[in-house]
Predict the structure.
Amino acid sequence: MAQQKTTLIDQLQGLNAEQLRRLLVEQLTQQKLGLYWESNAIERDAALDADNIHAFDAEAAQVCGRLRVPHPEHELDKQIAAIEWVNDLTVVTRNEADFSGTGVRLKNPFLVV
């Protein structure tokens, strides 16, 4: 016997008022605390490619050097930023502060859009 797919509406209709209230409070709390994670974000994000490793080459080293003057802190983050900048990629991180001012595109997967 084939299983029928249930939609979100079908699932919500099966809940009583108290269950709906709890679900809503839980979701709002997770969003407020920054704990929201889109369940399929990694699968749907074409920018992520685990099989593609970019080298810290001479061009990235030049960019990294420029990023570190006059702010030498966060050396490894600046190396990552340089590699991403040279390859026209997006840095996916929750640590946006250390990449600010580098000029790379940032994506925080923990923020609700």
